[in-house]
Amino acid sequence: VRGWGTRYFFTFYSEFGDRHGAAGVEVAILTTVFITSVVANISIAAAVLRYREMRTVTNCFLLNLAVADCLFVMGVPAVALARVSPQWRLGDLVCRLLPYSQFVCGFVLLWTLTLISMDRHRCIVVPPYRSRLTPKLAALLTVATWALAAVLFLPVAFWFGEHPSLEICTLVFPRYDGINLSLCFTIPAIFFTCILPMSLLVYHYQRIFDKLLETRKRWVTSNGYAVNDGKGKEDASRKISLQQIVYPARHTSLTHHEELRLNKHVKVVRVLLLNVLVVLIMWLPITVVMFLIYVDGRRPTEDTEFFLRSHYFIWALLVAYSNTLVNPLLYGLLSENFRACFSRLWFGSKRRKYACKSALTQDASRVQKSSQQIEDTQGHTGRKHRLCYHLSCSDNTNDRQKSNAQCSRHCHSYPGSTVTIADAPSTATILKS
């Protein structure tokens, strides 16, 4: 470039030479990923938007992930076309927008997962074990994430461009005396886009699983609670102290309310954690390659033995593109609720096996009719106790029924030291009085 001296250019999407065989394989894989990802992520978005009961805070973030995945994978046709031609033929505008959109979508994806981990961490680990987020606030956070990413990576749209003589789409950092602009941009971009959100993800889910492990041990050692064997089976011979339900201020062991709350999140956390692990693994290659491209470009001008080629970047990018399939596959295979929603979307309600509800709004630990007694072990004999429960609205409950008492809180007073839960409906969930 005139006035800048000898410069090295990384071709990114294009590669010189006769490579029709390898290009055909790359294009076939890219096409498969593109079609499958678009269909799957549209299904995720449709499930959240179509069914009101799916519009929870976590699912709002998952909707944002689906949007980011769709926008990210929209660059696949341009990349596929560039692989079958040694020259860049899509013009300067596409050359600027393609990497810009990839950086922005990658930032949004990782930080959306981080926001989900923060919300789950607060619900499970931090008292009073409630999310402060609402779907509207979650939507505002997603908009803020997109805005921040759009501003942060705006220089990419200016520094990428079509080289007029070489006919490649490449990145050219401006040169200023005394300022290493490439270093000033690359290191903060890698830190805030990858290192920081990945560190927060590991921290939050580590604390969540420490909490679940601690709770598991308390279930086993507590004399007043059913013991969960990890497979959904419970020892019904254990008795639960009414004192720990009606008088929550007095905690002698794990409260029933806490047990219900934690049970409700276990399955969701499993899916989210698996999603996070796959995302970290699949975004690590492109992060490493981008850093190596920076290192490779800092070689002395007389050193022409580059160890990076365009196909390394493309295969790392292909792994990142494949990540756009992870969210729909995980939810479709592991989430009972999304499976039900997909069944309703694709096959109609007649093939629905489960109610299409969010796992975080369902009562995951419903109280079944039983002759099991709830005993007051704290010496409150003769007092009247209240058994409070909440009736869950089924998927078929219409708006008029939901406005009535069928979905409301019910309390009944019982004299003496014992009370049974047989009077509570099978769809009831025990509440604190």
From TrEMBL:
<feature type="transmembrane region" description="Helical">
    <location>
        <begin position="137"/>
        <end position="160"/>
    </location>
</feature>
<keyword id="KW-0807">Transducer</keyword>
<feature type="transmembrane region" description="Helical">
    <location>
        <begin position="27"/>
        <end position="49"/>
    </location>
</feature>
<comment type="similarity">
    <text>Belongs to the G-protein coupled receptor 1 family.</text>
</comment>
<dbReference type="InterPro" id="IPR017452">
    <property type="entry name" value="GPCR_Rhodpsn_7TM"/>
</dbReference>
<dbReference type="InterPro" id="IPR000611">
    <property type="entry name" value="NPY_rcpt"/>
</dbReference>
<feature type="transmembrane region" description="Helical">
    <location>
        <begin position="271"/>
        <end position="293"/>
    </location>
</feature>
<feature type="transmembrane region" description="Helical">
    <location>
        <begin position="180"/>
        <end position="203"/>
    </location>
</feature>
<dbReference type="GO" id="GO:0005886">
    <property type="term" value="C:plasma membrane"/>
</dbReference>
<keyword id="KW-0675">Receptor</keyword>
<feature type="transmembrane region" description="Helical">
    <location>
        <begin position="313"/>
        <end position="334"/>
    </location>
</feature>
<protein>
    <recommendedName>
        <fullName>G-protein coupled receptors family 1 profile domain-containing protein</fullName>
    </recommendedName>
</protein>
<keyword id="KW-0297">G-protein coupled receptor</keyword>
<dbReference type="GO" id="GO:0004983">
    <property type="term" value="F:neuropeptide Y receptor activity"/>
</dbReference>
<keyword id="KW-1133">Transmembrane helix</keyword>
<feature type="transmembrane region" description="Helical">
    <location>
        <begin position="61"/>
        <end position="85"/>
    </location>
</feature>
<keyword id="KW-0472">Membrane</keyword>
<feature type="domain" description="G-protein coupled receptors family 1 profile">
    <location>
        <begin position="40"/>
        <end position="331"/>
    </location>
</feature>
<feature type="transmembrane region" description="Helical">
    <location>
        <begin position="97"/>
        <end position="116"/>
    </location>
</feature>
<dbReference type="InterPro" id="IPR000276">
    <property type="entry name" value="GPCR_Rhodpsn"/>
</dbReference>
<dbReference type="Pfam" id="PF00001">
    <property type="entry name" value="7tm_1"/>
</dbReference>
<keyword id="KW-0812">Transmembrane</keyword>
